[in-house]
Amino acid sequence: MSETPPAKEPRRTLGEIFVEQGIISEKTRERILERSRQLGRRFGSVLEDLELITGEELAIALATQYDCRLLPNLPRIKVDNAVLEMIPVEVAMQHLIFPIKSEGGRLAVAMADPADNRVIENLAADTGMEIVPFVATKQDIREAICYRYLNKGATRPSERTVLVVDDDKLIRTMLGDILSGAGYRVLKAKDGMEAFKQVIAQSPHVIISDLEMPLLNGYGLLGALQNIPETSFIPVIMITGKAKSEEDELKAFQTGFFDVIFKPFTAGSVLARVKRAFHFYEHQYRLF
After folding, report:
1. CATH of domain 69-150
2. Domain segments of the chain as ranges
3. Rounded mean pLDDT of the chain?
């Protein structure tokens, strides 16, 4: 008579791992767990954003939790262009993943979240290869994407930064002058796709986006940002030349826009909305 194999132990949670390592207390674990539920964000991401853990500590814990190899210094790893082409830049940015090596029908991929089975399954279907996940920090993946796909460095601004997105150069200039005159650092993009790349590379705190643009419109940009846990909480203010209507305003708020600016606009109306957006950005993680 064959013996019944022992039951597999349940996977430890990140909170349990961090408490065991003495990085956080049990009380902090409970508070962060509740806050992450309220925000609809990953437990580890909230801890990292609150600077209660480092990106490296989160990556080590995830590698332990999911029994994956840890990949330090990802931006320094040389990757063949043929391997890069296996994952389009838009997919890499959306899911914070980065291809490393292809060999024998297997594709090694650096991931910030090895728990995302949907991404692994989709990659396997798209490439026809077995996906081997490695864990890297979000910052290392961002830098690797910027260096290898976008040919630019990744930064995190110390100044309050607003990204202005509009296909009308005059509007970009007007908004830029208003914001820079009030002391904000201003980034500019002429369409939603360029804006998406700017978000990954530059990490703005607030976004003002036109509604109708080529390549990726305002709703498309917002949707792309909402699909990434690390960018889903950035307040996005819609700016539109449509005649003001309650229906359009309601649709914008229901979709997830933080606020709406109707053209023509005044400096006061723009700055009031941006100030409120920064207040939201800076206070959303209050725990008490």
Report:
1. 3.30.300.160
2. 14-53, 69-150, 161-283
3. 89
Task: Please choose, from the candidates 239, 245, 232, 225, the residue with its C-alpha nearest in 3D space to the C-alpha of residue 179.
Answer: 239
Q: Evaluate the CA torsion angle 117, 123, 129, 135 in order and state its sign.
A: negative
What's the CA gap between 100 and 77, in Å, rounded?
Answer: 8
The arrangement of secondary structure in 161-283, i.e. its CATH architecture, is 3-Layer(aba) Sandwich (3.40)
| Tens-digit pLDDT profile for residues 186-228 | 999 999 989 998 998 888 999 999 988 888 889 999 988 887 7
Question: Could you tell me the pLDDT band of residue 287, with boundaries at 50, 70 and 90?
Answer: very low
φ/ψ of residue 132, rounded to 5: -110, 105
What are the residues facing 188 on neighbouring strands? 164
Query: Residues 6 or more apart from 253 whose CB is under 8 A from it?
Result: 260
What integer pLDDT is reported at residue 285 of this predicted model?
A: 53
Beta 236-240 vs 259-262: how paired, if at all? parallel
The greatest distance separating any two alpha carbons of the chain, rounded to the nearest whole angstrom, comes to 82
- Three-state secondary structure of 110-150: EECCCCCHHHHHHHHHHHCCEEEEEECCHHHHHHHHHHHHH
